[in-house]
């Protein structure tokens, strides 16, 4: 890596570029091997991992169940570090090879749903929940949901990548994305000064989309010491909103599903039944 790099006329891959995700980065799409996806007994089949994008959906599913909806689901683990997302079955569910992906087997043929925002809207519409009925509040929820889809890649793929994962610390890249991450946090902090939740009084899919990224970075849960680096204490309204949502039982369950790091008692690699939270966490079943 040098500071006098001149891009060639046509880019070509020169081996792996280093960093935590080097082994799964490729410039091409499509299946790399044959593997069917497992299918459990519930109509909704989720294929995911407990990254912030994955947590959005497991929080929504647990919130639906908590609210009494018949949203039982099987959650299967997709280990993106091992390349599971490039199996033929997963690529059929999501041609973009990214978690989360969901199949709805309550319809024939089963329907695929990919992109976390699309999955949240699909579930909200199917169960008539967590998307306000009032047109103004509903539009506001959609505004913030789409804001998240466009903004979080700067926080995760930009700030998080260059601050925490890149094999070298590049001041220009870290400065550029820190600036943008802090600007986005200020957007949220100002909005949450006058709003309990993103769409106003009602907790919605907009909160479920934004909380795993922006809430957790402010609470010190993402990218090592990023909260200190970002001076996250100045985003007090975001912290207040984070804490209120973090206290919800469905959120506490949702962030455990498909989790493979942290305390074994907080890791539920696969979820097939509500009782799994009591009986199938890694402290109960071991790590083999
Ligand atoms: N816009 C997508 C982003 C999904 C995404 O980036 N997923 C990451 C994990 S957080 C992934 O599967 N990465 C695997 C890879 O890049 O090969 C969504 O919101 O669903």
UniProtKB/TrEMBL annotation:
GST C-terminal domain: residues covered: 134-268
InterPro entries xref list: Glutathione-S-Trfase_C-like (IPR010987), Glutathione-S-Trfase_C_sf (IPR036282), Glutathione_S-Trfase (IPR040079), Glutathione_S-Trfase_N (IPR004045), Thioredoxin-like_sf (IPR036249)
Q: Which Gene3D superfamilies match?
A: 1.20.1050.10, Glutaredoxin
Q: Which Pfam families match?
A: GST_C_2
Residue stretches of biased makeup (Polar residues): 13-26
- Show where the GST N-terminal domain sits: 41-131
Residue ranges, compositional bias (Basic and acidic residues): 268-288
Region spans: Disordered: 1-26, 262-288
CDD domains membership: GST_C_YghU_like, GST_N_Ure2p_like
Superkingdom per UniProt: Bacteria
Which protein, by its recorded name, is this? Thiol:disulfide oxidoreductase
Origin organism of this chain? Paracoccus acridae
